[in-house]
Each structure stands twice: as C-alpha cells, then as structure tokens.
Write a structure and sequence with these properties.
The chain has 18 helices and no strands. By secondary structure, the protein is mainly α.
Length: 250
C-alpha cells in the first residue's frame, strides 16, 4: 500500500504514486521528510513563474469583479487562475470565487496550493464549499480535497462531510494534510455514514484507510466506529476484526 505522503507527492509532480514508490529507497523516507520535500517543490514551482502571475493579478485588480470573473473563466487556464488568486487580497479573490461556476472553481482547486490562500478559502460560504467538494469527489481528486480540509471553515467542512459517502470519506481521510481536523470530521458523521465506512472498507478493500482512520481519531470517534463495526452483519463484522487485527489496530 502506497503511503499517504507518497500519494500527495505524486499529485504535485503529476506522477502515479506507484512510480514513486518503485524508486529505490523513496518508500523508506520518513513521512515528515516527504512532506517537506513536497512543500519545497510547490514553492519552487510557484516562484518559477511568479512574475507572470503578478501581472495577471495586477490586471484583475483594475477591472470590476464581474468583468474579472468573466475574463478569468473564459481566458485563464486553471493553473494561471490559481496562482493569480494566491496573489490577490482575500476580499478581492473571494469576490471572484463567488462569481465563478463550481466546475471552474474545482478546476482551479486542483491547481491551487491551499496553504497560500487560507483567508480566501476560509471565507467561502459553506454550501459553496460542499458543492465544489462534491465535484472534486466525483473526479476522485482525494489529495486535492485533503489539502483543502486544513483551510475550510468549520461549517464548510461539516457541509462537505455530510455530502460524502463512506468510500469517499475513507479515501479523503487517508490523505489529509491536517490530521487534527479528523475529530471534527468524525463528529459530523451520521450513524449511516459510520456504517458506510465499514461497508466501503470491505467492498473496496480500504482496510488500510479504515485502520489509519481509527489510529488517528480520538477516543469518542473510535468508540462510535467500533460500535458500528460490532453492529454490522456477522460476516462483515468478522471481516473487520480480521483486517484490523492483521494491521495491529485491534
């Protein structure tokens, strides 16, 4: 199973994580070192063309937000739009986001480094965050969603969580950039979603993801999930016990 940090490194490099895992010694690099490398690569990519992004950002400030949004949607590739947004002040960037369609915002999100625009992301209304999150989940952009979890508002996070099914929740939780928000996510889960987590682990062979979730949530969330595992149909409950026992999480 490829580690979460290798999956995220593969995303920023545009490479399949399996190719990275096959490189000699890379799979043994500590997760924190891989995370540092990923951020250094992101910084280098940003600085390489910053002067071009700055020119577009200056132009967008000189026209009304509605006009800037139209120009952005129809003339700027998502990568250029993402880098431009990272250089705008939060209020101006927020005005642009509100005027762009969900599909385009999702395109921009794929190319964006959430850590560069925390105030912009935190200011996006919860329902809009959820709609874009659903679109990204439809595209199976788990790493992108996992990166934005660190920056979205509490209400935006809850609205997004409520829109996901068990498989989506397991895949996103496995690649979160900010594990401290896992308990926030777990608290928003309904009983039905907890059941879906267990079912999805069995149906999609996501036992590693389920074990990682159990390992990183607090006692309250772990107990809730354990109760749902116990209440599952006998065959499924036994499969959960066997898988978690084999992973050392039971």
């Amino acid at each position: 199973m490829t580690s979460p940090e290798l999956i995220k490194l593969g995303h920023i490099l545009g490479l399949a994580p399996e190719r990275l895992a096959a490189l000699d010694g890379l799979a043994e690099v500590p997760p924190q070192d891989l995370r540092t490398l990923r951020r250094q690569i992101g910084e280098a990519l940003f600085r390489a063309d910053k002067q071009h992004f700055a020119k577009v950002a200056a132009l967008s400030k000189a026209v009304p937000p509605a006009v800037a949004a139209k120009i952005t949607e129809h003339a700027l590739p998502p990568l250029l739009a993402a880098r431009t947004a990272e250089l705008l002040d939060p209020q101006r960037a927020g005005e642009l986001v509100r005027r762009l369609p969900d599909s385009y915002v999702a395109d921009v999100a794929v190319a964006m480094d959430p850590a560069r625009s925390p105030e912009v992301i935190a200011g996006i209304p919860a329902d809009r965050v959820a709609r874009v999150a659903v679109e990204l989940a439809r595209r199976r952009e788990w790493v992108v969603i996992g990166g934005f979890v660190a920056q979205v508002s509490h209400d935006g996070l809850v609205a997004s969580v409520r829109a996901f099914d068990g498989e989506q929740l397991l895949r996103v939780s496995f690649v979160l950039d900010e594990l401290s928000r896992l308990d926030e996510i777990a608290a928003a889960l309904t009983a039905a979603q907890l059941d879906q987590l267990v079912t999805a682990a069995a149906e999609h062979d996501l036992w590693t993801e389920l074990a990682a979730l159990l390992a990183n949530v607090g006692d309250t969330a772990r107990e809730r999930l354990a109760e749902r595992c116990t209440a599952a149909p006998p065959a499924l409950a036994e499969a959960v016990r066997a898988a978690l026992s084999a992973s050392g999480h039971l």
